[in-house]
């Protein structure tokens, strides 16, 4: 294998022949230093201004690592070129690829091939499937919703007209921003949206577009632009035409003509400020290359509504000095209970990680009671802990107590389960699984393994604790796939509280009132599946054969049941959140902003592989 230095020299030689590659800014100073890793960055284009901001962030962060080099290619928005760029980078022996795909569909197979060989971080646009190491990007629907809520506030009334300047027709990000935006505005029947597309997404085309509207602008109350460059174009146009129309943009970058300055100068009224994720990409790349455990699968970036009232505070906060080093961090942790093997492993993981890092964990078990959780949080607030962590038993009813914590200046992290709150800034981050995808995976397995023939496939669903986020979302993902496939029907669905006894009872109840006519069972966790198996056996129904069973979690007991042929498929949901949670707490205490969501890496397992995998299961 070529040494890294040789690799770099061959890259430099290549540079002599083509101008297509850029070496990160830390190369020059590095000629005499040992190079441990080379990271390839395949950029979709260098035309869109925000990509230059992203490149600056990547370069700035990489300059902190003298042993790592960055090589960048520019695909000039051409997928064929991007495919070649990626191949070139691979040929030159990069150790990790960061790719921002120009066209997601075109690039997905290529990314998946690279992922077979080296780690891949996908940025900005999510690719189909999970053949990558890590995705870092924004939640564009959420950004659209946030913009919708802000615009309603700026409008100050429940009627009016909005001019929406959308991006390119090819841009999924723009589609998502629009659909999130519409989901809010459609609640106001007297607020109308006029949508126009600015194909280049650049300032001057936006300006021309708005100028060409002339008189029509009379009826517009507010302009919503999908980026700040278009917002500035809109400002230039209305300024020339002499109209006074409010403008809201997206991005909130810090450059001279970027969103934050535009808000400060009063050229636009507000922007939704989102990081490009460049800094995070390098930080995670370093962790991946150094084989640090607990790297998530997806990191969803946080965005902020910045307007003329809060822009000064926002900038101050961004530039605030790092927190003083605190020797021992006090963390109040409200765990929801001890209902399942998953939960016990989760508690163990969190306690061990805290101990390993010298974090003082004050642990409270709420025994499935939201009231007890609220009381525990109040106690933590009184104790003036540094951070509060909650695994919320249900998703609703948290607004008030989270506001109390916020007012006391104590950040709250959500571990494992989510909350439905009016204001996302009530918590710092969510660390846990993608429950919707787990539900989809379960139904995909049923679709492939229990074919629908003349008669419909009857499915019995054993839900977890009702109104808990994994229950709601697993059901949602499962039904999403089910509804797209005819011949499958959920004929019975009951909650089993995520316990062994609960799963057993659901089957017993069903047997009391029905003739057995079930083809497949979807249990929202392993414990309930195991309880159901016990009940089925008592009725002489052979689990795994007479009825196919799929469940979620991936505990050792579930693997044993698969080996015995009683359980057919397990969708993994990792409870080992301790290391990631503690890392997030340390980052937060260091003054870093956490992403909105940190999503864990998970797989699906079937009977064939159960035996091989059992010994390596950690819970
Ligand atoms: O699947 C189940 C547990 O919230 C993801 O809760 C967690 C779920 C897990 O009791 O076993």
Automatic annotation (TrEMBL):
Keywords noted in UniProt: Signal, Sugar transport, Transport
Ranges for domain Periplasmic binding protein: 39-290, 338-593
InterPro entries associated with the record: Peripla_BP_I, SBP_2_dom
Cellular component terms (Gene Ontology): cell envelope
Record GO terms (molecular function): carbohydrate binding
Short name of any one Pfam family annotated for the protein: Peripla_BP_4
Keyword Signal: yes
Coiled-coil regions listed in the entry: none
Location relative to the cell: Cell envelope
Family of this protein: Belongs to the bacterial solute-binding protein 2 family.
PANTHER family given in the database record: D-ALLOSE-BINDING PERIPLASMIC PROTEIN-RELATED, GALACTOFURANOSE-BINDING PROTEIN YTFQ
Name of the protein in question: Simple sugar transport system substrate-binding protein
């Amino acid at each position: 294998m070529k040494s890294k230095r040789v690799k770099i020299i061959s890259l430099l030689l290549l540079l002599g022949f083509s101008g297509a590659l850029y070496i990160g800014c830390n190369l020059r100073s590095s000629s005499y230093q040992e190079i441990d890793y080379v990271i390839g960055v395949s950029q979709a284009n260098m035309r869109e201004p925000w990509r230059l901001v992203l490149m600056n962030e990547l370069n700035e962060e990489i300059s902190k690592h003298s042993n790592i080099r960055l090589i960048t290619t520019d695909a000039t928005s051409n997928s064929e070129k991007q495919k070649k760029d990626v191949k070139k980078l691979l040929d030159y022996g990069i150790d990790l690829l960061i790719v921002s795909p120009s066209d997601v569909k075109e690039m997905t197979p290529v990314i998946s091939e690279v992922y077979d060989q080296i780690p891949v971080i996908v940025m900005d646009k999510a690719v189909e499937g999970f053949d990558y190491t890590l995705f870092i990007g924004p939640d564009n629907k959420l950004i659209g919703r946030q913009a919708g809520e802000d615009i309603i506030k700026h409008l100050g009334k429940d009627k009016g007209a909005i001019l929406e300047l959308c991006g390119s027709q090819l841009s999924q990000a723009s589609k998502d921003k629009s659909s999130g935006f519409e989901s809010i505005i459609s609640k106001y029947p007297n607020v109308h949206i006029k949508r126009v597309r600015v194909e280049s997404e650049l300032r001057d085309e936006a300006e021309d577009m708005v100028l060409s509207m002339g008189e029509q602008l009379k009826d517009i109350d507010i302009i919503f632009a999908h980026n700040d460059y278009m917002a500035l174009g809109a400002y230039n146009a209305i300024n020339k035409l002499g109209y006074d129309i409010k403008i809201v943009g997206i991005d909130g970058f810090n450059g001279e003509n970027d969103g934050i300055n535009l808000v400060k100068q009063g050229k636009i009224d507000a922007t939704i400020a989102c990081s490009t994720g460049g800094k995070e990409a390098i930080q995670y790349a370093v962790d991946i290359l150094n084989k640090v455990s607990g790297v998530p699968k997806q990191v969803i970036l946080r965005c902020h509504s910045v307007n003329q009232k809060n822009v000064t505070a926002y900038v101050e906060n961004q530039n605030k000095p790092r927190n003083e080093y605190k020797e021992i961090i006090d963390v109040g942790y409200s765990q929801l209970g001890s209902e399942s093997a998953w939960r016990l492993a989760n508690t163990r993981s969190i306690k061990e990680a805290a101990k390993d890092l010298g974090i003082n964990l004050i642990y409270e078990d709420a025994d499935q009671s939201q009231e007890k959780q609220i009381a525990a949080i109040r106690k933590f607030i009184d104790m003036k802990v540094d951070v509060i962590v909650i695994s919320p038993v249900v998703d609703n009813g948290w607004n008030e107590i989270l506001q109390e914590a916020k007012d006391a200046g104590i950040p709250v992290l959500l571990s494992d389960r989510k909350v439905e709150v009016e204001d996302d800034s009530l918590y710092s981050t969510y660390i846990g699984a993608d429950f919707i995808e787990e539900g989809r995976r379960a139904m995909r397995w049923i679709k492939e393994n229990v074919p629908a023939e003349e008669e419909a496939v009857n499915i019995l669903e054993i839900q977890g604790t009702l109104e808990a986020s994994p229950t709601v979302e697993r059901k949602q993902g499962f039904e999403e796939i089910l509804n797209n496939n005819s011949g499958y029907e959920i004929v019975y669905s009951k909650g089993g509280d995520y316990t062994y006894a609960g799963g057993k009872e659901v089957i017993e109840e069903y047997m009391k009132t029905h003739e057995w006519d079930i083809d497949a069972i979807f249990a929202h966790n392993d414990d309930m599946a195991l309880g159901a198996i016990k009940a089925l056996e008592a009725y002489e129904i052979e689990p795994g054969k007479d009825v196919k069973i799929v469940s979620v979690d991936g505990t050792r007991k579930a693997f044993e049941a698969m080996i015995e042929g009683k359980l057919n498929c397990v969708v993994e949901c990792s409870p080992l959140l301790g290391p990631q949670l503690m890392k997030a707490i340390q980052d937060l205490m260091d003054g870093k902003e956490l992403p909105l969501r940190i999503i864990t890496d998970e797989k699906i397992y079937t009977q064939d592989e159960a035996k091989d995998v059992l010994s390596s299961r950690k819970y």
